[in-house]
Structure formats: structure tokens, C-alpha cells
Amino acid sequence: MTRSFIPLVLAACFLAVPAGAHEGGQRAKISVTGEGEALLSPDMAIVHLAVVREAETAREAMDANNEAVQDVIASLKEAGVEDRDLQTSGLSIQPQYVFPNENNEETERRIVGYEVSNGLTVRIRNLENVGEILDRSVTLGVNQGGSISFTNDDPSEALDDARKRAVEDALGKARILTEAAGVSLGDVLAISENMRGTPPPMPFGARAMRMEASVADAVPVEAGENSYKVQVNVTFEIEQE
Fold first, then answer.
1. How far is Cα 68 from Cα 137, in angstroms, rounded to an integer?
2. Nearest CA to 228 among 200, 198, 192, 193?
3. 141 within 8 A of 51, measured Cβ to Cβ
4. Which of 36, 41, 61, 218 has the fewest Cβ atoms nearer than 10 Å?
5. 214 inside domain
6. What DSSP string describes 51-69?
7. 77 falls within a domain
8. Structural domain harbouring 176
9. Statement to judge: residues 89 and 139 lie in one domain
10. What are 38's strand-pairing partners?
């Protein structure tokens, strides 16, 4: 009696378990990554400039540097750069040493002067003025290499366009994969975004930054286009046919 009852109970329990439970209760799904890109002409340049001055004392080097930087800032404002677009980006005071070697009579390291460097970050909203502003800056005292990047004040429209293209790309990939597998694409279960941004600033060489004041023509500058890229990860439900 007892032995015949046990198999019947086990059989009943097996039939009562939902079919989905054997698969962990999870729906079949597929995840794909889509990419979208939008190109946009820049409307703003960001330039990093620096003035370096040397003198026997730190005070003399600082005074010479301050005078040069003030001239540069005044010239930038004359060219239409607003106060909000000017920012000091670094100030350093470094001693200059002479070291003992076979070519001198020094017996120990000795300070022979000081170097003061003052950095300035400038946003230029009228791209037609970039070359002229660089030329003015060099003429008035900028003498250390920096970098220039072209960006957009408001890239939201381009980013939205890239997002749409990324989703379309993901949808297209998912359709191809499900068709090849002989199943149907279901509802979207999840979407996540990964924005890849724009290229980093490109440095302009020391030669351009060390031009003599006699240069007559403005520095030639080409803005090109900015690329805004977006990646999206999309998870779809799979409908079995």
C-alpha cells in the first residue's frame, strides 16, 4: 500500500509544476548593441595659452609675467572675448638651477633664476576670430605651446539624432539575428546608453606658439566637423514560433 502511493504522489507533483519553471521562469531574449553618429560643425573654440617669463628673482619674473598676461587679456577683450570666457588655468613659480659638471666650476647645485608660467583658457565663440586671436596673443607675450579644440555650445540636437540612429541600428541587427534563428522579435525589455563624446583637443605645435611679433598674417585655422557618437544596448524579448 505504501510503496504504490509514493510514485503516484511524485507524478502528481511533476504535472503541477508550470512549464516555464523548468526554464527558471525566464523569457527568451536577445541583446544587441547599436551605434549612431551625427556630424556637426563647431561653433566655439577652446584655446589654452601660457606666458612664461624668466628673471633673476621670483619677484622680477612674476612682475614681467603679470604685465605680459594683462596685455594678452586686454587684447583678447578688444577682440570680443567676454569675461566669462577667460579663465586662469595654472600658475607656477619654478627655480632655475645650475648643476656642477666638467664645464663649470660649480661645487653644488645653485639657484640662478626663476621661471614663472601663467596659463589662460579662452573660449572663442566667433570662429572667424580664432586665427587673429592666436596671432595677437603670441605678439603680446604668449610663448609656450598649448592646445586648441573645437566644440559646440549646445550639441543636444546632434546627440538626439545620434541616439535615434543607434536605436535604429540595434533594431536592424536584432531583426537580422532573429530571422536567421527562425524566431520573432518581441517587445523591448531594456535600453541603456553609452555616449562616446568628441575627439580630444589637438595640440598646436611649439613653432606656432613661438612666432616672432613681426608675423603679418593671422594663424591659419580649420575647424572641420565634430563627431558625436552614441551606443545603445537594447534587450528584446524573443517570441517562439
1. 10
2. 198
3. yes
4. 41
5. no
6. EEEEESSHHHHHHHHHHHH
7. yes
8. 22-42+154-198+225-241
9. yes
10. 228
Instruction: Between 27 and 114, name the one with better pLDDT.
Output: 114
User: Is residue 105 located within the same domain as residue 119?
Assistant: yes
Nearest in space to 95 (alpha carbons), one of 55, 67, 36, 39? 55
Count the residues in the chain: 241
Q: In what order do the strands lie in the sheet with 226-239?
A: 29-40, 226-239, 184-197
Residue closest to 113 by CA, chosen among 164, 52, 156: 52
Total-model pTM: 0.67
Helical packing angle, 130-140 and 58-78, nearest 10°: 150
For residue range 35-72, what is the model confidence (pLDDT) as tens digits?
Answer: 999 999 999 999 999 999 999 999 999 999 999 999 99
- Of 51, 144, 115, 47, which Cα lies nearest the Cα of 87? 47
**Residues near 212 by beta carbon (within 8 Å), at least 6 away in sequence:** none
